[in-house]
Design brief:
Bound molecules: uridine-5'-diphosphate
Number of helices: 17
Helix content: 40-55%
Largest sheet: 7 strands, parallel
Keywords: Glycosyltransferase, Transferase
Shape: globular
Radius of gyration: 22 Å
Family: Belongs to the UDP-glycosyltransferase family.
Structural class: alpha/beta
Protein name: Glycosyltransferase
Strand content: 5-15%
InterPro entries: UDP_glucos_trans, UDP_glycos_trans_CS
Organism: Rubus argutus (Southern blackberry)
Order of helices and strands: EHEHEHHEHEHHEHEHEHEHEHEHEHEHHH
Length: about 475
């Protein structure tokens, strides 16, 4: 009865800007170029954050969104991992999601459900209404291979993965040591590990997997995912790089872009640990001193330190206290006279990375940040913190060869001298030159993937054709 109306898609992004941003970009692409309409159903754990609101308020009318009532975690033990909370925020929202889904199934030409890896429990709802489900994989293809191999590795390996003597060699991937496996795989007795094993199995219930990567960047991994009979996953569509195109106009944004306008070309290091990343008090201070010692210009998104967790601002994004108050004595005054600009909590990252004054990016290696760096040809300093970031950092340094990596001392802290050295090397040294040249090559490859006959555009049109073929009840 609704076949005449435009094809409609429901998306369920799990909490975290790194999940919301690429799904919003996918939604915009489908709406602007392929005449879909979209509803985003958004599970929450508290009031929406400013960056979340700003992003959603700029969406076109054909993308509708609902925030679900916040999920309460008071019953959980204090040490519950972020990844478990993300999953629970979706599973505890299932009946609210089902209500909206039911009404959309009755009143629109609903052709698909698209969710990220934390949302696979919603596949059951889609199945009930005979709507195909798709997974949006918001990290690199290699991570997907690891996830699909997890049930096998779980049977073969009896110790913790970090205690394996040899790096694990998976088809289509660079060898990876167990200690660099994603955080959720580090404690095999944990809830998070069990959830991820479960996700790996549930992937097979989807009609297709959309991966935010591209053939030219990860040819071996993507070919493995498409051709490896042993893996036998659902059809894969590598449609990346999808990066943030919305501009953010929150506090400090204009100032930050204006400051960049005044700096020489390629002279500024951008420093940011993503939406969730936080450092300990000691590490924050070493970083401040290291940046100052390097003599390099920097734009630093500063967050208040947290001595317990490296993802302390994951749900809140903004620091609850003034982050500048934690920096070394006199640092703010000394560096604001020309060397640096400090932005508390959130910057218009995608625009910053596209600015000609930026010459390097010290990053926590979140996948979206990596893609934004690639698209803009900005080489990196890899400073992984949590989730799958160590694995990403390895790929950046050893696989793609676009990043330098500072070494931590025996206490696990990266000292200020080491930071100063690596920053100078990236911005002025020979190694820095080499990674910059490499990065420019990947930038061109990304452009090619997104050009008219490019690999990602082709994959997207195949996907669109398949989506449009679905006939609703
Ligand atoms: N981001 C931003 N401003 C900030 C920090 C992050 O716009 O100050 C955006 C960034 O451009 C990226 C996303 O938030 O699109 C972060 O995703 P990523 O996967 O890099 O890291 P996560 O925050 O998920 O750890």
């Amino acid at each position: 009865k609704h076949q005449a109306s435009p094809p409609h898609i429901v998306m369920v992004p799990s909490p975290g800007m790194g999940h919301l941003i690429p799904l919003v970009e996918l939604a915009k692409l489908l709406v602007h170029h392929h005449n879909f309409t979209i509803t985003m159903i958004i599970p929450t754990v508290g009031p929406p954050t400013k960056p979340q609101n700003t992003l959603l308020q700029t969406l076109p009318k054909s993308i509708n969104y609902f925030f679900l009532p916040p999920i309460d975690f008071h019953d959980l033990p204090q040490e519950t991992q972020t990844q478990t909370k993300i999953t629970l925020s979706v599973t505890r929202s299932l009946s609210a999601i089902r209500n909206i889904f039911e009404s959309l199934a009755a009143n629109s030409n609903l052709v698909a459900l698209v969710v990220d890896i934390f949302g696979t429990d919603t596949f059951d709802i889609a199945k009930e209404f005979n709507v195909p489900s798709y997974l949006f994989w918001s990290s690199m293809a290699m991570g997907l291979i690891l996830l699909l191999y997890m049930p096998t590795l779980d049977k073969m390996v009896s110790c913790e993965f970090r205690d394996l003597a040899e790096p694990v060699k998976l088809p289509g991937c660079i060898p990876i040591s167990g200690a660099d496996f994603p955080e959720s795989f580090q404690d095999r007795k944990s809830e998070a590990y069990k959830w991820f094993l479960q996700y790996g199995k549930r992937l097979h219930l989807s009609e297709g997997i959309l991966v935010n990567s591209f053939m030219e960047l990860e040819p071996d991994a993507i070919k493995t995912l498409t051709d490896d009979i042993g893996l036998c996953g659902p059809p894969l569509y590598s449609i990346g790089p999808l990066i943030q195109t919305s501009s953010y106009n929150g506090p400090g944004c204009l100032e930050c872009l204006k400051w960049l306008d005044e700096q020489p070309r390629g002279s500024v290091l951008f420093v940011s640990f993503g939406s969730g990343g936080t450092l300990s008090f000691e590490q924050l201070n070493e970083l401040a001193l290291g940046l100052e010692m390097s003599g390099t210009k920097f734009l630093w998104v500063v967050k208040s330190p947290d001595n317990k967790a490296s993802d302390a601002s994951f749900f809140s994004v903004q620091s609850q206290t003034d982050p500048l108050g934690f920096l070394p004595k006199g640092f703010v005054e000394r560096t604001k006279l020309g060397q640096g600009l400090l932005v508390p909590s959130w910057a218009p990252q995608s625009e910053v990375l596209g600015h000609g004054s930026i010459g390097g990016f010290l990053s926590h290696c979140g996948w979206n940040s990596i893609l934004e760096s690639i698209v803009n040809g900005v080489p990196l300093i890899a400073w992984p913190l949590y989730a799958e970031q160590k694995m990403n950092a390895n790929v950046l340094c050893d696989g793609l060869k676009v990043a330098l990596r500072p070494k931590a001392n025996k206490n696990g802290i990266v000292g200020c001298e080491e930071i100063g050295r690596v920053v100078k090397e990236l911005m002025e040294g020979e190694e820095g030159f080499r990674v910059r040249v490499k990065m420019n090559g990947w930038k061109e490859a990304a452009k090619k993937a997104l050009s008219k006959e490019g690999s990602s555009i082709k994959a997207l049109s195949e996907l669109v054709m398949k989506l449009k073929k679905h006939k609703c009840n």
